Amino acid sequence: MKNNFKQKILKEKEFDSFSADFLYNTLKTLSENKKNISIALSGGSTPLPILAILKEYKLNWKYFNFFMVDERNVSISSSSSNYGNIEKVFLRNVNSSSHSMINDNYSIEECAINYEKLLYSKIPLGENNLPIFDLILLGIGDDGHTASLFPDTKGLNESKKVVIKNSVPQLNTERITLTYPVILNTSKIIILAKGAAKDKILKEIKMGKGDHYPIARIINSKVDTTCILGIN
């Protein structure tokens, strides 16, 4: 099978509106063929203005079930919560089901275990017995991380579990994250990235010099992947 990576490069001023349109068309196509659609959303600041635009589009939102790609070890009410921030700008404005990774009544270890159980109960399984998301939305960090799969962390080597607690020593923190097995089992991936640092990472990967970046494993995979890059 050939690599299925595609890249769209835009001026940063066009990035949000183009990305929202692209997401809308992707979701519209999905909703024309299915009525139970599973999507995993990434946090951070990049997708928030895009999702704020997307909420205004008319779609059969009741067909969509939104999950999280990763989460910080904070309460949903925290300004650092991926789910909390997405809920404010997007999820509360659409008639869809959504599922936070964090429950304040449980430890981060318990939250990871419970979220894995949730995915297995809510999402169809493939022949490999792993959940198949219809779409996963990813980002890229300045260090080349994606989801909460950071360089030199144990989560990069997970081969069985689909949700884990990943310790990130360089940030002195712990995160919950989807793993490569489930991310690479998805039907489609859209990567949203902005800035010169991300452009440099992507160019290194395309030249075969960036395999140490966690995002490289996504880009070099067989999954239908589109990266939308905004640069000045």
Main sheet: strands, sense, barrel? 7 strands, parallel
- Beta percentage is 15-25%
Low-pLDDT sequence parts: none
Give the N-to-C terminal Cα separation. 34 Å
Oligomer: single chain
User: What value does the average pLDDT take?
Assistant: 97
Helix content: 25-40%
- β-strand number: 10
Radius of gyration: 16 Å
Instruction: Name the structural class.
Output: alpha/beta
Which strands sit side by side, in order, in the main sheet? Answer: 1-10-9-6-2-3-5
Order of helices and strands: EHEHEEHEHEEEHEHHE
Count of helix runs = 7
Give an overview of the whole structure.
The protein is of the alpha/beta class and 232 residues long. 31% of the residues lie in helices and 23% in strands. The chain has helices at 12-33, 47-54, 82-89, 108-122, 180-183, 196-206, 216-219; strands at 5-11, 37-41, 64-68, 70-72, 97-98, 135-139, 163-168, 173-178, 188-194, 224-231. The strands form two sheets. A seven-stranded parallel β-sheet has the order 1-10-9-6-2-3-5, with helices on both faces. A three-stranded antiparallel β-sheet has the order 4-8-7. Helix 1 crosses helix 2 (47-54). The longest helix has 22 residues, at 12-33. The chain is globular. The model has no long low-confidence stretch (mean pLDDT 97).
